[in-house]
Design goal:
binds S-adenosylmethionine; seven-stranded mixed beta sheet; 32% helix; disordered N terminus; 6 helices; Rossmann fold
Amino acid sequence: MHRDSTKPFYSHGKIIVEIGSGDGRLLNNLASLYHTDDNVLLIGIEVDEPQYRNSCAQIKTGNVQFINDEFENVLANFSDETLDTVISVLPHPDYIDRTHQQKWAPVYKVILDKMKPCGHFILVTELIDELLEPVSTSDYKVWKRWVVEKFGLIGFDVAKVMDGAPLYFSSHYLDKFKNDPQRIKIITLILTKKR
Ligand SMILES: C[S@@+](CC[C@H](N)C(=O)[O-])C[C@H]1O[C@@H](n2cnc3c(N)ncnc32)[C@H](O)[C@@H]1O
């Protein structure tokens, strides 16, 4: 674990966690936006060691740290209702594909539990045509409806659904996928806790 901050997690007023943070591009960019606010800690969790090392090498601010582990293990160490924002950009298929939903649904339930009552989970995910053809409008609609319904069933309140990724988000895969908008359809879900 790379720790620039000597403060323990709980002493920060606001904690932003990115799961599957890849090369750290998004979190390091967000850290620059928040760098004047001492109260905010950004934590990236990435299981792949070379990418984790790359993330640490790009750190420019003291408010961000990366952890090389499975995010399930790391999240288990947080108390419930402690995270302000959880971000997942283009999760691995094991954590979003329809075929693996039995496995991943409980993982997202844990994320819901760890979020503060006013917290957010920002999920950016994609639909890619298996035959490498453009995604049809009807397939896109069916898939989008399924994702929204699935996260609602897990227990989230689906506050907002957007086509594409947030404009200020940049990550290794997002930047790559943006060049292929016909074949790769991206949506963003802003998920909150039910009141
Ligand atoms: C499709 S990549 C997306 C990476 C990055 N978010 C981006 O948009 O460029 C998925 C990432 O999740 C990581 N990953 C998969 N399972 C993980 C787990 N259980 N814990 C932490 N990271 C994981 C992979 O190593 C990979 O870097």
